[in-house]
Amino acid sequence: MKLITAILKPFKLDDVKSALQEHGVNGMTVSEASGFGRQRGHTEVYRGAEYTVDLVPKVRLEVLVDDNEASSVVDVIVKAASTGSIGDGKVWTTPVDQVIRVRTGERGVDAI
Amino acid sequence: MGTRERRNRSNESDRFLASLFNKSLAALPPKAAHSGIALAAVGGYGRAELSPGSDLDILILHNDSLSESELSEFANALLYPMWDTKRVDHSVRTRTQTRDAAHDDLKVALGLLDIRLVCGDADLVAAVQHDSIDSWRKESRKRLPQLRLSLEERHERAGELAYLLEPDLKEARGGLRDINALRAIKMSGAVDIALERISWAESTLASVRESLHEVTKKNRDRLLFQEQDLVAQHLEYGDADLLMSDVARAARSVDYLLNSTWHRLDSKGKDGLGRILRKPRTTPLGGGISVTHQEVVIDELEDLNADPVVGLRAAAKAAQLGLPLSLDTCARLSAILKEGGAQLSNPWPREARENLVSLIGAGSAMVDVFEALDQEEIIFSWIPEWNSVRSLPQRNVLHRHTVDRHMVETAVKAAALTRNVHRPDLLLVGALFHDIGKGTQEDHSERGARLIEPLAKRFGFPQEDIETLKILVLHHLLLSATATRRDLDDPATIASILAVIPDLETLELLHALSIADGEATGRAAWSPWKASLVSELVSRVRNAMSGSTIALQPDISDEQREVAQAGILRVTLEERDSDYSIEIISPDKPGLLSIVAGVLNLARLDVRSARTKSHGPSAVMKWIVTPDPHAPTITAEKLHRDIEAGLKDSKGIEERINNRALAYAQLPTIPVPAPIVESIRDAATDATVFEVRSHDRPALLFRIGVAVTQSQVDIRSAIVTTLGAEVIDTLYVTEISGGALSDERAREVRERLAAMLK
After folding, report:
1. Is A32's Cβ below 8 Å from some Cβ in B?
2. Which residue out of B532, B540, B682 would a mutagenesis test of the A interface target, given it has the greatest number of A Cβ atoms within 10 Å?
């Protein structure tokens, strides 16, 4: 099993969500995040004073999938999240040892 | 569901316990004394109020004539048969032990106030009842603060019944335990409480709890989301929203009575000499309003029909002082409004609108006053539209309050943001009514924008302000929705905002409203993350907008120009509905603004707005002032004389203003947002513009004028606006020799202003 984590532009969340649902992914975790990569943040002028916004608001999305689905789900996310400009975000996968559904105690792929 | 069922349940338990009691007594050895032992019910069971899941709180009283083993045998014989069928909370005590236990434990003392004989020695129970009530009354000074502390701890833990998604009917604030507390306070005799005011609330909450026990077959008092539909059905409500609306209304009325009870207990005997003179000390505030017993009251002699604004004036004053509105005043106002008296004209007079804005702008101090206006149904006479959102639940995880309370909370948050905008009045009114369209299937923003129009018209706002309010209500979700769902880098996103927001002033209002709405909704809807996205959007839109929020210098007419050229003093006065319009053309000199402001202040005239501009050797000034209730009649001649004297010698004015400030009664204050002083170099007029945004206070404009004049500069023009209790003053300032101020000089003036405002 794999955990897919994606950092996205907030306004792309709806698109990614519906693309994933169409692809058959039904569960996900979404949280508010902020950070920077190559985009670095930017400078702002407010009431005459210049200040740097170094953390850019992003959305963090996490999906658990079976190994053989991981690469297609990643593709779906990347395709839906892309605008072509800087700050589009990143997607990565992490191997997962075990998954347990709390209600039923199911384990492994059954719990996804 | 109802009192009768709960009583029947209690009677049934009585019979069951009595038979067990008699059986257990019969099992005792014959030599043992069969008198001097009794079974009593305490707490809710003592009041014969049993829900299906209620515990049986019982007390076995004895007079120590049984041996320890006999007593234990008796108690076991009584309790064992119930072990599996009933939940029993019992204690076995003598009269003295009971007295000691009550002394040490508040909960025991409260339970004993409801003690009732089930069977056995009636005299023994009567004696314990007498002891309990007697010591509760005698020790009320000590016990009531303990009770209050325990309530506060419980409220902290259990939250507010009226607003929780899944409230505990017993423990939460405004719940059944609070009703018992009110009963206990009344029993102490420390203060009289009109318990009949909450009889509907009590029967409603008790029935809902009873139904919850029936439906779930458990003795849990927390009304979980998934059970609300079942309970609503069981109690024959149309849907769970209607059920929760009744629960909220009931809880609010309990909480209101409890709050006002604590306040009355607190302010008892706080009137110093008044206690000895048997007459409460009263601080008159003018306009038919006073402070008595730390409450704002409308004077008895005040004719509410002749002065219908007095209710709003009292509410605004109470909120601005952070004091409650007295229950008697509320009742009097409510009664006369219900009879159709004391009606405000349509549109409202300016004073009524200003008082509404002052009320809304008081921040958290406004909540209790507004709650009183709601509980006494006064607000519905003033604003009938409020009825459609009263205690309207929002059963979702985002919201933590009912619709009406959410709007009040939004106004509280907005009051902290009044310095961020140039029209605090529109922000506050927009905040208080932004969700007024909720309660139907229709889009609430669209419906709200339709409802706000007649409302704002009635408040007396001019058409352009009404248009702004409509935009605020219609688009109150626009910024947060756009910021999170649209690409901020896409010019089309910015263009979509520019298409509906006409100017910077509206943009800053909408931004402040979005923040206030989000903060009032709660953490689930608003976070620093979301706030930063919205700010980013706003700053991008601001960059794309042209224009400025700085007030423009006023125009002057040809006739005024002519008089100004002559350089002589002329004062003309026009009396209007509730204010005066005063035109003053005066020879210009440094400090003129503060001299005229000072003269008006000493004449007890409250400045609502002013537009002044220098022309040639003179300054042309237009003032709108409202007279203080104690103001002597004013005439143009008198003002002329006073200004003339002030021009010759202005020192006397400051002295008299300072003396008056000292003489003002020391009234309480509420926390307000810190004042803001900003300056900008205006190329078009070659002047430096200072903008002061502050909470209003006596002689503020006079002091601003003095502070600026100390820097030896010339005030070319001033635009002064008072909106409710907030003030925005814009001053166009140049060096006396002409030209804008250098950065250093501008900072000097800013610092002087900031120091004065502290």
Report:
1. yes
2. B532
Structure tokens, A73: 């789900």
Task: Report residue B166 as tokens.
Answer: 């899944």
Contacts of A9 in chain B (CB under 8 A): 487
pLDDT exceeds cutoff 80 at B397: no
Out of B484, B489, B529, closest to residue A85 by CB? B489
Give the single-character DSSP code of B279. S
- On the question of pLDDT at B292 being above 90, the answer is no
Q: Quick check: A47 and B678 CB within 8 A?
A: yes
The answer to whether residue B728 sits within a structural domain is yes
DSSP letter string, B370-433: HHHHHHTT-HHHH-GGGGGGTT----SSS--S-HHHHHHHHHHHHHTTGGG-S-HHHHHHHHHH
Q: Given an 8 Å threshold on Cβ–Cβ distance, is B678 in contact with A83?
A: no
Residue B666 to residue B165: CA distance in whole angstroms: 43
The ipTM value here is 0.73
- Check pLDDT > 80 for residue B159: yes
Same domain, B573 and B669: yes
Identify the residue whose tokens are 């009406």.
Answer: B404
> Which among B138, B154, B185 is the end of a domain?
B138
Instruction: Write the pLDDT tens digit of every residue in B502-560.
Output: 999 999 999 999 999 999 998 878 988 899 899 999 999 998 988 778 888 888 899 99
d(CA B545, CA B567): 42
Q: How far apart are CA B264 and CA B281, in angstroms?
A: 15
Q: How close is the nearest chain B Cα to the Cα of A32, in Å? A: 7
Chain B residues with CB within 8 Å of chain A CB: 483-489, 527, 529-530, 532-533, 536, 539, 678
Q: B687 and B734 in contact (C-beta within 8 Å)?
A: yes
Q: What is the per-residue pLDDT across B71-80, written as a single tens digit (0 to 9) for each?
A: 888 888 888 8
SS3 for B576-624 is: CCCCEEEEEEEECCCCHHHHHHHHHHHCCEEEEEEEEEEECCEEEEEEE
| From A9, A57, A83, residue closest to B529, measured CB to CB | A57
- CB-based contact B726:B715 (threshold 8 Å): no
For A87, nearest residue in chain B (alpha carbons): B489
- What is the CATH classification number for the domain harbouring B214? 1.20.120.330
The answer to whether domain A2-111 has CATH 3.30.70.260 is: no
Into how many domains does chain B fold?
3
Residue B239 has what DSSP assignment?
S
Residues of chain A with Cβ-Cβ distance to B530 below 8 Å are 32, 57
Query: B495 in a domain, yes or no?
Result: no
Using only C-alpha atoms, what is the Rg of chain A? 17
Q: DSSP for A15-44, please give it.
A: HHHHHHHHHT----EEEEEEE-STT--EEE
Residues A83, B487: C-beta atoms closer than 8 Å: yes
Nearest CA in chain A to B542: A46
Q: Which helix (H) or strand (E) holds B365?
A: helix B365-375
pTM for the full model?
0.84
B439-450 mean pLDDT: 93
- Residues of B with Cβ-Cβ distance to A13 under 8 angstroms: 484-485
Q: Of the given ranges (B245-254, B269-278, B475-484, B607-616), which has the lowest mean pLDDT? A: B269-278
Q: Which domain holds residue B26?
A: 3-138
A54 part of contact set with chain B, CB < 8 Å: no
Nearest chain B residue to A81 by CA distance is: B487
Q: Does A34 touch chain B (CB under 8 A)?
A: yes
Chains A and B form CB pairs within 8 A to the count of 32
Q: Give the CA distances from residue B593 to residues B588, B718, B721, in Å, rounded to whole numbers and listed in that order.
A: 9, 8, 14
Q: Measure in Å the smallest separation between the Cα of B678 and chain A Cα atoms.
A: 9
